[in-house]
Amino acid sequence: MVRWEPGARDRLRAAALELYASRGFDETTAADIAASVGLSERTFFRHFADKREVIFNGQDEFESAFVDRIAAAPEGSPMNVIANAVVGASDFFDTRQRDYSILRQSIIEANPSLRERELLKMTALAERMAAALRARGVAEPQASLAAQSGVTVFGVSFRLWLSPGEQRSLAEIERATLADLRSVTLEAAPAV
Amino acid sequence: MVRWEPGARDRLRAAALELYASRGFDETTAADIAASVGLSERTFFRHFADKREVIFNGQDEFESAFVDRIAAAPEGSPMNVIANAVVGASDFFDTRQRDYSILRQSIIEANPSLRERELLKMTALAERMAAALRARGVAEPQASLAAQSGVTVFGVSFRLWLSPGEQRSLAEIERATLADLRSVTLEAAPAV
């Protein structure tokens, strides 16, 4: 009875995103998704552990795109290592993925529990990046400050990348945001 | 039947933290907490909406300690306004509160759902701080970069403040961390 459906995973994902966007994430069941592309609920669960996994799978690959670059980086200041990792990881989001990312983001923004999950994903990324810096001998608090600043740059840049009319690649936006971060933090006069 | 118990709220809070720490948050019921100080479960729920609220109440005052200072700040660069707000808000955590904060933190670290809530609290703070900067005419992405950097400085400093043997006040640590953040971000050479 267990047949392999060629392309089933991609069809299920596309159908899921469309239904999440049009009907709402909470209002869509796995059975709805499967039925909309002529597959069974059972087939859905062969490909995805649950409804959320359609949106959040690939988390390990996403984190590795950043963390592996930190581990493999040549000698450099902590923020230089982070900056190169963040800009390098933008390969993960090529321009063809922009429409998918816009749709995915709109689904996440519309649902508080998905939004929480996305925020926690960013925190997990910052923690793994800080650990990767410490493994290179970077002390605290420099490791956490550089890693969290890297996630700030990624998050701000990613949102800009998805904004209407934006023409630049994610890497270009990240380079500009890194320069903005330097200017912003430089302008902190001694605090009270 | 509804009597006002003098000091009940403080006694319930102290008992709750002790039980959360010794027995675990999930393993402690509101009835356990109330019984341990000779009060009824009903009294517990007159003071706290649920078990989590013992740990997370005061969120509005916490955020206001930062945001009100941003709104009231004199002219200054975005990061200067943020730095002064973060250091100023350290009043919220005076040294007498350190033991309470250490206990609270250990309870949160031991429980994934409490940890998530705490992380989301920090994101909410960053979003409110960015909005307060925009209300002063600060453009994006500068508002988000300054606000998120402020939360990074607060988070890193707060963790240091609670570490064993730390003698400095939270404000002193925050000033040092702000200087560290400036050094770290300055050292980002142009990215690939």
UniProtKB/TrEMBL annotation, chains A, B:
The record's SUPFAM superfamilies line, in alphabetical order, gives:
Homeodomain-like
The answer to whether the entry has keyword DNA-binding is yes
Q: Which UniProt keywords apply?
A: DNA-binding, Transcription, Transcription regulation
DNA-binding region ranges = 29-48
In alphabetical order, the GO MF annotations are: DNA-binding transcription factor activity; transcription cis-regulatory region binding
Specify the HTH tetR-type domain's residue ranges: 6-66
**Pfam families registered for this protein in UniProt:** TetR_N
Q: What is this protein called?
A: TetR family transcriptional regulator
Source organism (scientific name): Frondihabitans australicus
Organism ancestry:
Bacteria, Bacillati, Actinomycetota, Actinomycetes, Micrococcales
